[in-house]
């Protein structure tokens, strides 16, 4: 493959990885900010849980910790992949050892899996909570408590923003799709460069 085409492929791969990294870290930041770092969990709240905990929901904390951990793992893997790609763009080298390639594919797979988990947990968790609060505001209308799934949830120590939970789920989902695209790029690049490297491999052995 001509080296110009190779560079374009590398650059495109790098940009997609950078976008995935941005999406994953945005998702992580939004979840952390709206759960007080996992200490207050507004996911999967049921009616009985809401009325039982005035100080702020400490229920279902494992689901919040899971979504934070998932987004953090994906962000870390994507940061590593982006750094590796940056080095290969800057120095126009390609990592050639099989172990390194397998490791990179592992990072891709882990990123995609954990971004998917983040998407599902946040989307399902906030949907359940939305349904509960919507039900409460319609069955017991009160003037001092209005609720919207995309608005701020007042009357707690922190005021989680529904729109930000939705944005966190969307970012994680978009990040997963982009990472999948980046994995495709990576595989194409490997297959193409194998043609070039085959000769050097044989001559080395
Ligand atoms: C809806 O709210 C009422 C009280 O406002 C409660 O008794 C009922 O259990 C709630 N239903 C659900 C599905 O949360």
TrEMBL record:
Record keywords: Membrane, Signal, Transmembrane, Transmembrane helix
Span of the signal peptide: 1-24
Membrane recorded as keyword: yes
TM region(s), chain numbering: 68-91, 103-126, 165-188
Protein name as it appears in the record: MARVEL domain-containing protein
